[in-house]
Amino acid sequence: MWPGLAGRLSHVLVGCHPRRWRERYGEEMLDVLDQHHPTARTVASLAASVLSTHVDPACRTEVLSLSRLRRAARFAAAIAAGLVLTFGLLGYAAWRERWQLSGAGGVGGVAFASGQRLLVSAVGGAGQDSMDTVWDITDPARPRQLSAFQGGEPTVLSPDGRIVATVSYDGAPVLWNLADPRRPARIAVMQTGGTAPLWGEAYSPDGQILAVAYTDRIFLWDVANAARSRLSGSLAAPVTSAGEASFTPQDITFSPDGRILASVTGTGQVTVWNVSDPARAARIATLTGARDYVQAISLSPRGTLLAGRAGRGVGDGRGRGAHDQPDDREDDQHDDIGERARAGVDLMAVRGDRGQLPAVVEPVQQPRDLSISATVPLPRAAVNSAAVPFASTPAAMPWPILTV
Amino acid sequence: MAGLRGNFHGLGRFADPSLLILTSLSDGPKHGYAIMTDVAAFSGVRMEPGTLYGALSRLERRGWVRPLATAERRRPYEITAAGQEILAGQVATMQQIVQVVRLRTAMAWGP
Predict the structure, then answer these.
(1) Are residues A29 and B75, on separate chains, in Cβ contact within 8 Å?
(2) Cβ A261 vs Cβ A271: under 8 Å
(3) Can you say whether the dihedral through the CA atoms of A126, A129, A132, A137 is positive or negative?
(4) Which listed residue, A57, A77, A339, B45, has the most CB atoms within 10 A of its CB?
(5) Which residues contact A61 (CB under 8 A, 6 or more apart)?
(6) Angstrom distance (rounded) from CA B28 to CA B8
């Protein structure tokens, strides 16, 4: 309760005691209140004192009459209503703060799975100030808040939408059970003993493997039984930065068939691994085409295209083999992708900030001979930090659902 | 021996605050806010003004504390001989309970 309001209420309540009481203790109580820092407890204590002294025969001076009883009852009802209203408003304010969609600290992370009805977002600032909120987005226009928990930064939902992987406040990967989304429950904390910062997580499409990416390695966890997760493989994936003192990768993803894992591993650099057998996972290639940050990558449904979004402006994402088209020919690039769709080639979808930003497309049918084949503009409504959806045509990309 | 709350029978929810107030006044008179801060210091209990004066009025009625002359708006209270006797009895009861607890836990859990 606000100190000013509590102080004023306290002074009013001292004056509500019976006259005999006020004459004896009123000045002393006001003196104590002047030195005290009144709180909601002070108000509640004085309200109880008012009620008890009014029913205490030793404090009453007037003969008890029906009219006085009625007045006392009305007074008690008014006090009770005031307290209920005050605490109700405080409770509502706390509830709103807990459930808010975007707090002062902004959205710290979003986990979302295409085709699933749940979305988990972290809001309310950094560290332990943030709350993870579970949303039902069955109707994207009217998302419903189901629950909230303090689990760190959510990174990815399992393909069946029943588990969300988060990065805890102390940097460990944690699995939360969302089978009952109204009661999220922590399932497992997966420690590896390393000290490198954890920057990303990705589920294999069958939900059996969780890739946990640190700045030096990527660990492949067998999460078929989430409560008994076990380490099934690891990949050396040191993050390199070109002149950037503190580069942090942005994305890691599996191919739809789960056999290929692609991860940003440096400034303008993406590494692709064969993870068909997690215990014997091996690097296929490292792409270094983009000159700038690669913030998001994705593999098309058939695993034949790798798309990445580079960081700064049209054209920055081009590299070896890219069409050398001028910036004012974005529409032509878009048409090129459209033709691929019509020819039966799956489109990649790229996540990124609002605006027209380029994507880098890599055919990976022959993974040892990778090259950047095209850049395309992003839809204006693309959203940062959300799962990557796929579509057969640009118009079918479900961007609006991600505009959280 | 009286029960743990035997001496304070009839004080209801003010029994525990009354014991703390008598303890606070045992080393000399204090006014209301000084009692609150002293109680918080030696027991960690944050007594609110409504509770403090509810208990003080009952102690005064029983003759266990006595108000002194008001200095400005502050009125000190001092413990009476009857109050000292009640407090001593209560402390003795509590000491006996503590002794029993020590003996029994030593037997059950070891020294």
Answers:
(1) no
(2) no
(3) negative
(4) B45
(5) A18, A19, A20
(6) 21
**Cβ(B8)–Cβ(B90) under 8 Å?**
yes
In b/e form, how buried is each residue of A46-71, taking b as 16+ CB within 10 angstroms? bbbbbbbbbebeebbeeeeeeeeeee
Chain B residue with the nearest C-alpha to that of A45: B50
Whether the model clears a pTM of 0.90, i.e. scores above it, the answer is no
β-strand pairing of A269-274 with A260-266 = antiparallel
Nearest CA in chain B to A21: B57
Query: B64 is written with which tokens?
Result: 């266990």
A169 at interface of B, judged by CB pairs closer than 8 A: no
Report ipTM (2 d.p.).
Answer: 0.82
CA dist., res. B72 & res. A374, Å (int): 87
Longest Cα–Cα distance in chain A: 101
Each residue's pLDDT tens digit, A36-55: 888 888 999 899 888 888 88
**CB contact, 8 Å: A21 with chain B?**
yes
β strands within A113-259, DSSP E = 118-123, 131-136, 144-149, 153-157, 163-167, 173-177, 185-189, 198-203, 209-214, 217-222, 230-236, 252-254
